[in-house]
Amino acid sequence: MQTKIILPEARIPRQWYNIIPDMPGPLAPVIHPGTMQPVSPDDLLPLFPMPLIEQEVSTQRWIDIPQEVLEIYQLWRPAPMYRAHRLEKALATPAKIYYKYEGVSPAGSHKPNSAIPQAYYNKIFGTKRIATETGAGQWGSSISLACQMFGLECTVYMVKVSYNQKPYRKSMMQLWGAEVIPSPSNRTNAGRSILAQHPDSNGSLGIAISEAVEDAATRDDTRYALGSVLNHVCLHQTIIGLEAKAQMEMIGDYPDVVIGCHGGGSNFAGIAFPFIADKAHGKQVRVVALEPASCPTLTRGVYAFDYGDTAKMAPVSKMYTLGHDFMPPGIHAGGLRYHGASPLVSQLVHAGIVEARSVQQLACFEAAVQFARCEGIIPAPESSHAIRGAIDEALQAKEEGKEKTILFNLSGHGHVDMTAYDDYLAGKLNDYEYPAEEIKESLSHLPKVD
Amino acid sequence: MQTKIILPEARIPRQWYNIIPDMPGPLAPVIHPGTMQPVSPDDLLPLFPMPLIEQEVSTQRWIDIPQEVLEIYQLWRPAPMYRAHRLEKALATPAKIYYKYEGVSPAGSHKPNSAIPQAYYNKIFGTKRIATETGAGQWGSSISLACQMFGLECTVYMVKVSYNQKPYRKSMMQLWGAEVIPSPSNRTNAGRSILAQHPDSNGSLGIAISEAVEDAATRDDTRYALGSVLNHVCLHQTIIGLEAKAQMEMIGDYPDVVIGCHGGGSNFAGIAFPFIADKAHGKQVRVVALEPASCPTLTRGVYAFDYGDTAKMAPVSKMYTLGHDFMPPGIHAGGLRYHGASPLVSQLVHAGIVEARSVQQLACFEAAVQFARCEGIIPAPESSHAIRGAIDEALQAKEEGKEKTILFNLSGHGHVDMTAYDDYLAGKLNDYEYPAEEIKESLSHLPKVD
What we know:
Shape of chain A: globular
Largest sheet of chain A: 7 strands, mixed
Enzyme class (chains A, B): lyase
Family (chains A, B): Belongs to the TrpB family.
Distance between the termini of chain A: 58 Å
Cofactor (chains A, B): pyridoxal 5'-phosphate
Oligomer: homodimer
Strand content of chain A: 15-25%
Subunit structure (chains A, B): Tetramer of two alpha and two beta chains.
Structural class of chain A: alpha/beta
Helix content of chain A: 40-55%
Keywords (chains A, B): Amino-acid biosynthesis, Aromatic amino acid biosynthesis, Lyase, Pyridoxal phosphate, Tryptophan biosynthesis
Number of helices of chain A: 18
CATH architecture of the domain at 4-8 and 69-108 and 232-443 in chain A: 3-Layer(aba) Sandwich
């Protein structure tokens, strides 16, 4: 009975898959937040190195992974894919459940898949220092690791409430040599202006993005890095799905449905895009994004132009959004609390190629606990959304008495999120349904783009 | 440049290696703490299931790993072996440094290698419930996972200071369905008698062992489980070294020196015993155990009969010991704070087959930080002792201008030990040298065995 499917070294992908040439129609332009006109590559140069700007708009289907990146990927890649025999048995389902596990990276999540190449391209482009933001710390820890490996300095603006309440990932960043600043801070105009109005502000991802962008834009030696949403981040993450496809091929199987959790879109794009490529060539495969009901961007937002951050300093993209000043409640799946979404994923949802569903927090933790007790691995709260989706598909297969092959991405482990499980097991967590009028209110602030 | 050496599935070991037939001379008897006479297998039956008692004294060199155990091992085994190219470069050493990484298990350490078979043998022998103790929680979390997988109940007596200060591993145990009791507790005579004298007692591993042993001995449905020290635990852990040998063979290399950290001896035995087997057949390989200077059992203790626990309820074994009432200071490598040692490892040290060295806390954290910044993986504080040993060997090779192949066991990750790194980076940690007169005092309490 095969449980773990190990990809032989000879089959490690040497290229990322760029979905842009296979998208259903042209990409919407990215709009400059100042001029409200389409951005040029040069507009982005204060924020990103040219190789990443080129990747952002590339129409080349396959992009070589640099040797220097492959060598670091090797520390945890190829990541294992598992057949969840014990979970299947517990569910008494005729479905086969597979999961790709990204928690084996040094940071414990899929984020290093993009942090490593981002640090690499910055290094070869001459960047000396990276400024970035982080919420719960998955991205911050990953980019700290990546900067350490390529000899770059790194400053992370970390949302203050997480800085104080989730100290373990802050400690990881420091261990990997990064400077970690609780945001809002006195280091930037954006931070100072918030602190002037709200000295006790707990911060938000939107504010932290504004601080990091300002830091990068105002220093010649520094560039900005983002851990999700952007096309080049989705590109780097496709290594997940490419490996999973090769692993499926090894065992002569293919998924009927591919599932990922969705926040900004990076892990979802990673597992999904290589299968969507097959779909474009006539393969029958459903692709499902699971998002939290407390931040229902894809299921209750609109497909429109909006700012990437609260302070309206980041570029304006066409995406599903709840409005740039939407404030989701503080759920444990901190990585899924973003008002917007990847423009690529958004376009695919809008075109009906990707299905989107929202799930409640309690149902996700219930799924995560069942998974941990069957399969051993403790999932990150974010990843629990994908597990919920997979279990629901498996239960539906049982009801219908149908065989079905399910693949989901287990994007990270939950070893540093144990307080979330404590709260769940102690009955302290609740579900949350966002009031329609509040979403309507934040959606009334979208920018006008011609 | 090959970084990760992946063992093909076909080469996963199907048997554990039992070192007993290859030991230098007969084993010393194990003594009953009540009668002070050698124990019989029947004496041990209230505590252990017969298959484990048989393994404890087996003279069969190879012991089959049950299929049910292999299927669960598959979740993280074969564990990867890495070549530490970046660390070698940072050290500018001519030595090659390899490390076997056991942090990929669901509990994040090597402990499930024995927890899974222990739960399995208890299950087939009819045990319904396991009672055990844990210090920092590595063992407690692993046996909780194992009991969950085989449908056994599990009660873990957790040293109270860790219960309060290291809540993440307690949460893991609860997530995997175990009952976790801060020790000393009101559940046992041993616990009640401590609490009567010291109501505010923080507990110790010795007390927690006494509570778990009493719990198991006084309930028909319950047996005891120990995560280190015993022969059958060392046996199960040999899967580590057997895999490492196969991985070395794959790349046509062989270590000049094999290094493990040493507390009770289980991870050390795991990496070392299969190489010691080669040594017995004339192979040139040094085998080195690294222990903390604050609990210097192998380097400053005596080789003598002593109790396994503080309350003198556990069997008496011939081993290196600092005395059963020795109280090591509270260091972050909680898993290495044991007054005794594996009798097998002790005999090998005494015979000069295994070298033992002690290292100070600060030098270990320095090594761990350098390792994390080069290789990415954040080591458990226990494992940092092995890293220190490996780096010292590599620096010596550099000094001597000699090539050398070094293999060490990275027994676990440090994701739930980040406060230790915080304390180190903040300069809050100190070294500690135990006063000779205090060791002399605790050694004056050894039992008399004819």
